[in-house]
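Need tokens for this chain, all 196 residues.
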Amino acid sequence: GGSASVLSVKQSLAPNPGAETLASFGDGAAAVVRAPAGKGAVICCGFLPALSYIKAALDHRAALQKKVDDGAELTADEMAQASLLDRSYNPWRFPAEIREFLLTPVRDAKVEPPIRCDRALVDAVYLPGKTGVLIPLANYTLEPIDSLTLRVAVPRPVAGVESVRQGVLEFRQLDPQTVELSLPLEDNDFVTLRLP
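Here are the structure tokens for all 196 residues:
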């Protein structure tokens, strides 16, 4: 139920029998098609949706930068965001509906990620080893997060959890193969889940 800009590439698709059109271009031609394949499905896009995702964020950042540079009057929300311009060249306001669309194939396949993070724009990487799991965290919201909650798959109950920046962390062993923990996150951190 959303829309996205078509940038660089546009290919109208001709769905085969049994395929489902998930999205259409403004002219009515099929833009996104899903067809069954083996135990799963193939989703084909006739455009590059990730470009729409980044362009919207870059456009927002550029428009705010222009207003600041021109000395234009800023809304309260824009004033709060203006400090982010000096913090990073990265954009921060990505459209959630396009992000959800990009995740459609993963969600349709019912892929269970080893880490579930309760905030968008936080990169949490799962690096298992013999003695535990290392999780590098990178915060791309450009603002400190007071409490980030991670739900992590583990091969067996955890003996302890530690953050490079926060030290020893409390955690909840939800079941023998799932741990949940929360921590503040400024820009980055490394969390270690130690196995016995």
